[in-house]
Amino acid sequence: MKKSSYWLTILSVVLSLTIGVSGCATTKAPDNNQPTKSSVKTVKIGVLPIEDNLPFYVAEKDGLYAKEGVQVELISFASALERDTALQAGQIDGEVADMVAVALLKKIGTDVKIASIGLGATPNEGRFAILTSPKSNIKDLTSLKGATLGISQNSIIDYVSDQMLLDKGILLNDVVKMSIPKMPVRVDMLLSDQINAACLPDPLASLAQAKGAHLIIDDTYRNISQTVFLFRTQSIKDNPEGIKATIRVYGTAGQALSKNPDQYRDLFLEKAQIPTDLKESYETPTFSKLQLPTEEEVNSVMKWMVDKKLIPQAYGYQDLVDSTLLP
Questions:
Q1: What is this structure's pTM?
Q2: pLDDT tens for residues 239-272?
Q3: Do the beta carbons of residue 226 and residue 127 sit within 8 Å?
Q4: In the chain, how long is the greatest CA-to-CA distance?
Q5: Number of Cβ within a 10 Å radius of residue 67
Q6: What is d(CA 303, CA 315) in angstroms, rounded to the nearest whole number?
Q7: DSSP of 132-150, one letter per residue?
Q8: Cβ-based neighbours of 151, under 8 Å, separated by 6 or more
Q9: What are the structural domains of the chain?
Q10: In terms of C-beta density within 10 A (0-12 exposed, 13-18 middle, 19 or more buried), how is residue 246 classed?
């Protein structure tokens, strides 16, 4: 769910979807929340086939772009790396990623701002989980000492796994981390007992469980991370009304999806590419109302990144968040 951007590298199919929607055709002056077509440039959003991006497709289905008078083009990518490269190059204006990615983008000179949480305003919106091999005798946290834990190094998965272990009193040095960035490889190594444990996001955590992996801990006990809807700062300056309208659409579509998940079930299974084994059991995600991450949540990620020497110093809350973009 909110963390699912990290299983994207398993996908070999690049979705291509271009959405061009005209604004209001009448001559009536728009209200304050609905800019005219002539005043709004096309907003280009980089998307991956994950559930965090589902509101964009709900908006297309329900005609919400036209209702807000905004033109949105969804540009599909096969991996987060390709998407982020396009953002750096100015080929897209925004994306749904995570706070580690936000700080790393700023570090390399791409100034971006968080406009809202995507998934993860509550702990139940999405899940990371640490699981052990179906053949492993490790079935609780205290038995993890000396175990090999598969992660994606210096990523949000690395951050969440550290927080879960520390929360439960496990010393990080007691676990041997192995960086396995490619999600399909990590899942296969876990299920074939080549590693003792792995940290996985849903839906892959649920898939591993369905195939016999033992759930050791997940992060539904507290809100450790979120995906965030972010934009290039230059795009915000160049097209503020278009960006704000796009955010409103994302929020409206997320609420429509949450209230009527069955109505969008087929769309969800198609766009999020849920594994075949989970299509009957995996729940359609729900989205909270648009809101910003808290300072505490942002500061926790920044501290971890500084400790890991991923950034030279912590970015302040105002460096990362633009509070003027929400409705």
A1: 0.85
A2: 999 999 999 999 999 999 999 999 999 999 999 9
A3: no
A4: 70
A5: 17
A6: 9
A7: E-TT-S--SGGGGTT-EEE
A8: 157, 158, 161, 177, 178, 179, 180, 198, 199
A9: 4-122+226-320 (3.40.190.10), 128-221 (3.40.190.10)
A10: buried
